[in-house]
Amino acid sequence: MAHNTGDFSPLNIAVLTVSDTRTRDTDTSGQLLVDSISEAEHRVVDRQLEPDDIYRIRAVVSAWIADSDVQVILITGGTGFTGRDSTPEAIAPLLDKTVDGFGELFRHVSWEEIGTSTLQSRALAGLANRTLVVCMPGSTGACRTAWNRILKEQLDSRTRPCNFVQHIAPAPACETRS
Question: Which of 38, 99, 109, 115 has its CA 20 to 30 A from that of 174?
Answer without folding.
Answer: 99
